[in-house]
Structure formats: C-alpha cells, structure tokens
Amino acid sequence: MMEWIRKNDVFTKALSVACAILMWSYVMGSTDHELKETYSRIIVDFTGMDALTQNDLLITSGTPAAVSFTLYGQGDKLTMVDEDSITATADLSSITSPGTYNIKYQVNTNVDGVTIKKITQTLPIVVERITSKPVPVELNLTGALPEGYILDKRTLRPDAVTVTGPEITLNKIVKAVASYDISELKETSEATLSYKLVDSEGDEVTSSFLSVNTSAVQATLDIRQTGEIPFVLKTNNYGFITEELFEISIDPPSVKINGDPEVVSTLNHIDVGNVNLETIVRSGLFEFELPVILPNGVTSEQNISSVKVKVEPVGIKKIELIIDKEALPESADFEYLSDIVVNGWTVEGREDELGAASVDIQLSYKPEELVSGLNEIPAKIISLDDQFLVVGTYTVVVEVP
After folding, report:
1. pLDDT in tens, 338-386
2. Which of 283, 287, 314, 332 is most open to solvent, judged by the fewest CB atoms within 10 Å of its CB?
3. For residue 82, what is the DSSP state?
4. Which long-range contacts does 326-335 make (Cβ < 8 Å, 24+ apart)?
C-alpha cells in the first residue's frame, strides 16, 4: 500500500489541493484585496424621448444600444452586484434636429464601494425627421390575357397611398407598385392587391420605420372578349323566287367586335335585317344599305353603322313578252292602237316557253267614261305561269269612234 502511495505521489497532490483551497479562502475572505469584473452588452435606457417625438424626430440607427464596462471593488462588494443592480441611461432631451450624435451615458449601481470604468465611452445614434407624403400607385400587369380577350380599362382604389417615415428614406420612394397576373382572366375581375414601395430605379425601398395608411389596394379590370362576327341577311321567298336564284353579298362581310364575354360568347353572327325577295325583284333595287345595330354591351373599333347589300340575280332572267293587239280582249267600244309589252322575271332557260298564253289581261274602264278619239286605259296583267313574275304597271292606247 505504501508502495502504491509513493509511486502515485498522492501526498504531493493532496498538498497542492489543500494549498489551493487555503489560498482561495484567503482571497475571498480578504477585505483589503481589490478585484474587478467586466460586464458586456448592457442595454442602455434612453430618456427624454418625448422631446424627439415633439420635434417629429426618430432614432433610426443605434438602438437598442449596448455598452461594456468594468467594475472594481472588494470581493465581498462585487459579489453583491448583478445585472439587476446596474443601470445604464442616456438623456436625449437636448436633441432637436436630425443628425448623427455621439451620446454620453451614465452607469450606476446601488452597491456602494464599487468603481465603474467605461469601456464604451459614447453611443453613436442617427436621428431623422419623420414626415408623410402621398405616393401614386401603379398597377403592374404580368402575363398575357388568353387569346381573344382584351383589357378595356383598369381602375385602382385608392390610386395613391400615404407613406410615413424618415425623411431621407421617404425621399427615395417614387411610387407604389401592385402586381397582378392576368394570364387566366376571361371576365371582368376585382382583386385585393398588396404593393411594394420602389425608388426611381424600380428597386424596393424597405424600412422598419416606414408605415402606410393602407396595406392593400382594390384593382378592377374590365375584360372584354373580341371576335370577328359575320353579318347575316335573312330573306323571304316568294313562289319560285327563292334565295338560291341570287348571289347575296354584304360589304363588309363581317365586323370585329369586343364586349362583355357573356354576350360575345353567345354570338355567331350579326343580323342586319330581313328582306323580301319579291319586293326587291319588283322594285329592281338590287343594291341598298341596311343599318347595323350591335347588341347591348358590344362595340366595334371600325365604327360600322351600316352595310351595303347586293342581291345579284343569277338563276332568273328578266324578259319582255310582247302581247299583240289582236291577242288583247275584244271590245265593241274601241279599237286597239298599240300592243302591250309585259316585263317580268322567270327562271333562266324558260324564256322561249312564255307567250301571250302565259298572262291574263284585264282592262279597267267604264264605257261611259270613254271619249271620242284616243284613250289610255289601265291594264292589269296577271301571270298564269307559276314561274313568271309580272312587274310594272301597264296601259293600252285605244281609239273610240
């Protein structure tokens, strides 16, 4: 056992520990030896902030402020000091204008017999003036509308926001930008959008000291659908006179429109009217204009108010039937002095099949009204052929003995 104690030097080690304990006890128990302790990152309490507020000032850099210092004193005194018994304060009441300041501060402790030596001598702070200004809001549309849709107009409510903050930072801001993706829009839409404040280069301006009167804006986008819609003319047939016997053209044939998608999506043509083919043939008016009336909620960039319509006969032909006076109704009251030329329309290719037997002629007169000499008597021509249309009015010249 003694050999083991001697080999491991137990007595020497034990003696060293005992000496250390005695030394520690001596130092801690001594009332004459001065010790020190360093404190770092102690937060400074600023006073006089009301003076800054009254002058529209705000500390934008340097807070929260932390300082470092060393405490000197006897061991028993230092053991009584902790962070709760230390205060660091700085008075700002003398600051009345913006600028960069090196503020002196005070450190105090409620423990007597302790000396404080500052490591950090002053606190650098930046003070700026707080002001407000209106900033216009710009709507930034991203993406593209689906094909066949256009943006008619846009509105933002409000169109400007009020920004409050440090004057220097505020002067950098030129506008507020709200972004909206329109890639999927096919109808008029409203959205609540956030925005960012940007400078003249388009870079975002951020600061924890900035505030705005509203955090979002309301955007309304009036979406209209576009399309090219043909004009359509409706026709009324009359007997053998049908639409197939004519080439009908409309100039312009179509119109480019835009409007409410709910309306435009239902349109496949624009009706320009209804015409009676018999009336056209009898009048001989094969070219005319018709007004264009677009549906409610639909407009045209072309400002088309009317279209020109051309009804060209291609399957029928105008002919003349000469009715010899010998084929006219007999009368003992007078003698015919002229033949009657009857104008009419028939299906192309039937011209040679028509003659005096194709019509019935009825004279309209009263014998007692006739006078001696020449008289002009109205004649009514009635077609007896279902593929012959008589046009015009007729008279016959007779002589009364």
Report:
1. 899 999 999 999 999 999 999 999 999 999 999 999 999 999 999 999 9
2. 332
3. -
4. 327/356, 328/361, 328/396, 329/361, 329/362, 329/363, 331/363, 331/398, 333/367, 333/370, 333/398, 333/400, 334/370, 334/375, 334/398, 334/399, 334/400, 334/401, 335/398, 335/399, 335/401
- Give the full edge-to-edge strand order of the sheet including 115-118: 34-43, 66-74, 115-118
Q: What is the mean pLDDT of residues 273-287?
A: 94
What is the distance between the alpha carbons of residues 49 and 33, in angstroms, rounded to a whole number? 42
* Residue from 70, 51, 65 nearest 124 by CA: 65
For 342, how many CA atoms within 13 A lie in the half-sphere containing its CB?
26
Say whether pLDDT at 45 is over 60: yes
Span 60-73, mean pLDDT?
A: 87
Structure tokens at 71: 């405490």
- The three-state secondary structure class of 24 is helix
Tokens of 376: 């002009």
pLDDT-derived band at 37 (thresholds 50, 70, 90) equals confident
Cβ–Cβ < 8 Å for 213, 162: yes
Helix ranges (H only) for 216-317 are 261-264, 277-283
Tokens standing for residue 136: 């216009």
